[in-house]
Amino acid sequence: MWSLLLLLCSFSFADNWDVALEQASLKKADVRFDVLDLKQVGGADHKAPYYEMLFGDPLRIPVHVETYREIMIEYSKEPFKAAVSSMARVGLGVRRNLEGDPLSEVAALAKKPDGLVRALEHLHRLGRRPLTVAQAKEIQTKAKALSPETSVQLAFLIESIAHSLEWRERSLADVDPKTLAKGHAERMEVPREEVPADRNGMSRTMRHLVRDVDLLVLMSGGFDLVLAVQKAQEKLAEVKASERFEWSSPFGQISLRGGKTDDVVRADKFPLLIIDAGGNDTYYAGAGADLDHPAGIVIDLSGDDRYLSLPDLESAVDRKERRDPKLTPKFGSAVFGYAILVDVAGNDTYRSFRMTQGRGDFGLGLLWDLAGNDKYECWVQCQASGEFGLGLLIDASGTDSYSALAQAQGFAGP
Description:
This protein is α/β, with parallel strands linked by helices. It contains twelve helices and 20 strands. Strand 1 and strand 2 (252-257) form a beta hairpin. The chain is globular and about 80 Å long.
């Protein structure tokens, strides 16, 4: 299927290239990078097969750009497929659904009468803070206040988070903890040119991380979590105004809020899961992940919402705050983890400095906006960018605007 599609596209471009090149007395075979000449200045070690293919035949680029564009438009309502397709192009293809639904066991557990309790027990075990008998009873009482469907979907998401965090643990099993901590600190720093680096633009710590982190395993957990969120967001549309659920987990706060109130998520919070049914909400935190908070999900179902990295950003990106070292990943940005922001409806504003709006550093970050006329503003390391990870910004519809300075809008590094 894929090969046939490329052949058909290539045929439509052939005559155009011939006509254009003929004006310069050239043929398609003449348009190549001289690999032997380039060896004089060395080269990088970490080159994706997709890059090698396009480097070997640059005239394929328009075909592949158009094909990839069509694929991404088709997958704008299916971010799981968009994520899998994107990583396949950099040599990290994993077909988690090749033999069926990878979340079938998770879904079956969520549907059990005590599914919510079981999901939270799993999460607490991973966080080395097991539930007490009293806590389990408290969860059962809270679950009774939810509709059966809402309870199932909440359990499904929580169990999916625990499931993905187990994948993450396996991916980092061979990494020295000190190296991991140092690498995390480096990733969180403001980009600067004076960092000691090798010919690949990487520090010694980064070289060790690239060697020891199992990116295929790490991405597998991310793909499954994207699929879980994709499945759940449709079924959460009927959350009732009276429904509420709050729980403090070892990995952050879990909140489900029905109704249409205008809520504010404070900047000092690092929530694990927020499900908000409506209202014009303001988020100063959410959908971020780092070494201490390995997952973050926000599903906002309606309202004209604002996602601001700091309260000072009510009207514009303030230059003086851009290099604030205290900034943390948020709004679909992950460092050594998974972060997913889904905004289903409304005219929304996304305004942040860095590590935001679909960014992945040794992780998967997704911002998925399904509808509305939205505004995206950031500085660097944002808007579909990643380094040894995947960053996706998928806006399915609306009249939108995007602005960024660098390392954004389709950036991959180092």
